[in-house]
Structures are given as structure tokens and as C-alpha cells.
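# nightly structure sweep
# worker-07 picked up a monomer target from the shared queue
# config: single-sequence mode, recycle default, output format = C-alpha cells
# input follows
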Amino acid sequence: MAKRFVVLAIWLASICAIAPASIVKVLAEEFPTRPITWVVPFAPGGITDTTSRIVAEEMAKTLGQSVLIDNRGGAGGTVGTEQVARAKPDGYTMIYGTQGTMAANVTLRKELSYDPLKSFAPVHLVGESPNLFVAFEGAPYNSVPEFIAYAKANPGKVTFSSSGVGTATHLVAELFKTVTGIEMLHVPYKGSAPALNDLIAGRLDVMFDYPVSVGPHVEAGKLKVLATTAPERLRAFPNAPTMVELGLKEMTTQSWSSIMVPAGTPAPIVDRLAAAAHAALTSERVRTHFEKVGTRPMLLQKAEMIPFIEKEIKRWGDVIERAKLEKQ
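# output follows
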């Protein structure tokens, strides 16, 4: 009798151990059964918004459910990112992670309630975009060497704008300051559009921003391009030299984006989302759109993303410390 009880206990234990895994598998096979929310922690209208929307539409084709964009801006992307970190880990809430929210904020924010690699499960990188270094059309310099000379001759008087503290457009300018040894006053804005408006009006001197944002203003003759941070010259701006050509190799940098979900999301569901993201990023539609806006698709996914993000955390942490930026 005792032996039969032992056998029964072992059998029950094995069923209990297997059942959760089986349930997860079944749920993953059915996933998704309703629309998925993709939180973009920035205001509508910028490159993060346009990029996420087209990728979301393509992912929906694979998933068989809508992927809805939810813009939750604030504190350089921290507000929306923190909210997703606390969301239920069921695959129905994703975060649009960026160089700022998933790398720079680790060093820049005093009280960051999330850890990029502990609070989230990486799904897929999305794309990387270079910046264009632009000035208002009436500026008394037409090249990077001329601007550096102007800044050194006018210490403390030169200004640069950005789409917010801790954003890529801010940090690349801080990197430029440390690499060239010049002084510039940071004037942050709540988004790229108002910053560009003041730059065009001549109330600011220079700005680093994305080709898709500044392109129309360059074509209209309202801004001039001094250089690009891309490793090679851009097809859309063939006359803009790279920072490497100008002897500023360290200034070769591109802003990146990603898809992540709350930690604890079942692996089969992460796999399903990663497959949908991969299909979207390799689609003709996304490839064509990315080419137009100067973005390159990034195909690292899941665990492959971890070393990349770790490297970015260190790189931008070093930039922030070298620039002696005050923690927010």
C-alpha cells in the first residue's frame, strides 16, 4: 500500500511540473487573441512615431491582430517605459526602446525605476538612424571646421537644440563637445519640431537631428547640412561629409530603436513577437520606407540583443560622465 502511495505521489508531482509548461505552450499557440499595445514613450510626429506605425502595421499581418501605437511621452521617454515595466507580462504590451531609454538613462536618471535588461525581455532591434549636423541658413559658417573655429572664438555664446534632455539628439551633441573641445549651451525642447522651428528662425545655432526631420527644411533652403554621423555619405545628402572624413572618427554614431516586453513574458510568446517583427523588418514595404528616411533595419533579436545593449549602456554612460551632465 505504501509503495502505491509513493508511486501516486510521484505521478502527481510530474503532472504538476508538466502542466504549467503545457498551459504556456497552448497560450502561446493561441497568442494573440486581441490587439497588442505598443507604447512609444514620445510625442506623436517624430521619427519614433512614424517608424513604429509602419512596423506595427506589418507585424499585424503576421500576428493576425492589430498592433496599436500608444504615445506616452514624458521625461525623455522614462514615463512610458516605466509604465510598461510594470505591465502584465503576457505579450500584449510592448515598449519602443531607444538609445536614450534603454542605455543613456541608466547613467543620466537619478531614480530610474527600471533596469533595461532586468525589467524587460528583449524581442527585436528595429533600426538605426544617423544624425545630420545642421545650422540655420544664415549662419556665418558652412562646414564643421568653420563652426569649430567660430565656437572657439565665441566661447559660451553658441547654442544647440535637442528634442529633450537625454535624447539621442542631445547626447550626440554632448559627444561632439567633448571630442572637439568646444563649448555650447544646450537648449532642450519637448520634441524635434519646436527645436527646428527656432533653429530655422536663427534663434539657435546648430542641431543634430534625423534626416527625415531636417530633410524638408534643407530642401526648402531653410537649413544647411554641415556633416553626418553616418559611417558613409548618405545617398540623400551626397555633399554632406561624414565625421570620419573630417577626422572625428568617434563621432560616427547612429541612434537605435527596439521592441521589448515586460520581464517574465513567456518565451514562446516572445518568440512569436520576434518572428512577427523580423518578418516586418525584412518586408519590402519597411525596407523601402527605411531607405527613404535614412534608417537601416537591425535584425538582432532576443538574447542576441543583450551584448549590444550592454555595450551601448557603457558607451553613453561614458559620454554622460565625460560631459559632466547633471543627473535628472
